[in-house]
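User: I'm writing a short report section on ligand binding and want a predicted complex to refer to. Could you take this sequence and arginine and write out the structure as tokens? A short remark afterwards would be nice.
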Amino acid sequence: MTDIKTNICMTVSEYAASLGGELPPEKIAELLETPADRKRGDLALPCFRLAAVLRQSPNAIAASLAPLFENAGFEKAEPVGGYLNFFFGGAKYISDVERLAKDEYPELEKTGEGKTVCLDFSSPNIAKRFHLGHLGSTVIGNSIRNIYKALGYKTVAINHLGDWGTQFGKLIVAYKKWSDSEKVKERGIDELVDLYVRFCDAERDDVSLTAEARAAFNEMEKGNEEYLKIWRYFKEISLAEYDKTYKLLGVEFDSWNGEAFCYRRTDGVVKELKEKGLLKKDDGAEIIDLSEYNMPPVLILKSDGSTTYHARDIAAAEWRMSEFGFYKCVYVTSNGQSLHFAQLFKALELMGYGWAKDLVHVPYGTMSINGEKLASRTGNVVLLDDLLEKAIEKCRAILDEKDSGVADRDAVAKAVGVGAVVFNTLSNGRIKDKDFNWDTALSFEGNSGPYVHYTYARAASVLRRAGERGGYAGYAPNSDETALISKLNEFPETLLKAAADYEPSYIARLALNVCTLYNQFYHNCRILGAGGETEAFRLALTEAARAVLGRCLELLGMERTEEI
Ligand code: ARG
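Assistant: Sure. The structure tokens for the complex follow:
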């Protein structure tokens, strides 16, 4: 909360207490509104929301509260029609702009001091192409990581690679039958995908293949070096390809310990579950029964003794706790895996781990592409690389068409193109299903990444062209300016809320609102050439807007663009 809000909330809360009513400051903070019309003040308290607790009419409450703010640093606090309207006066805005332009948040950065947050995101299944389905996890996870980092948490970004499981038995059998290392080297993941598809087709007519694949995976689990060598090769080929996508997106990981790594710990998990009396035999398989909790059982060992996704996830959680002692461990996946995680968390709770409550599943909705279908070599899945490359290309064309004066159009096209895809993924609540529309995503005017990049670059350009400037202590800000300042002031609260709700969309929305208000200010108020305190103040305000927008871009995982 800003000081001014804290001040209001404390005063009102104390007033309520003096009448025997209970109104905690946080409750009051939720009631405060920013009036759309600034003639109604900079902040308003709707007193009808207090009437039930204080047993007075809204008008009476507003009237009795007003005098309490007489010498509290406000220009005035005016009771009107059941509202108490606060007018901050110029001095507060002047000091706000000074502070915002400095771009320092030492208090905020202490929020997570000494706490570690593990973030499991992206986590593709190797030997498969990186497709649109992974975009959400990669981009949302990365942004949540940035958000926690900005609050001073230590973050551990974990790529829980899907690099173990029965599918590798199939792949190895198929590889040995129909392929070789040369072919894989030449065609990369495409060869692996084709092999897998071919195997699944063949398996339908010949069940002996299924048994063969199962035996091969069993061999892998037993440590068959020949098979493991092939598997390592598949992994290397896959990672080389994913690396390109991660570089484009600017996403980095601290750990790549995925399912294969965790597999090695599953013996311990099985032993532990047995000791704790949680395992039950079921048709030859080993399960944890969750019927009491209205959930299907957790499969730990299949009837052939091979480990499962769940078993490896239990091992993963235990490893993360022992290695990092996390405060929270966050899993970002599509909402299709919600049940998997509900079961996992319940299993860990039943194992007696108090920290099971610190595991958080952050689901997101599916993403589709409207209009134009992206042709791809592997049927109708949209590959992330193709999508990003196309966005970059389209941005480059827009820059060419605008005859943009930037020195390095390629670099800007990359930042804006990739940013457009990232922003599109993050700008709506994460749980909503998203539709990717080229026109909306790449529009320089709409609620889009390019619009944010464009506004950021506009502010940067104003500052580049500015000369020396003096002070502005006596300046009286107009309503375009105060509206922008109030919005910029929302940055710290928005960051905290985005972290609490795991919602990068709050940051995206703040960025859009700042852009709208900055552009309004830019059009209505002359900056360069205004002279004196006016120019100095407007430049400082531009610096403040640029600082907040720059932080938003970074939190969302987008590059800053100093020019466009
Ligand atoms: N590899 C999985 C997939 O692509 C996602 C893994 C999520 N993380 C986890 N610890 N289970 O669907």
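A remark for your report: The CA atoms of residues 126 and 239 lie 8 Å apart. The two ends are 35 Å apart (CA to CA).
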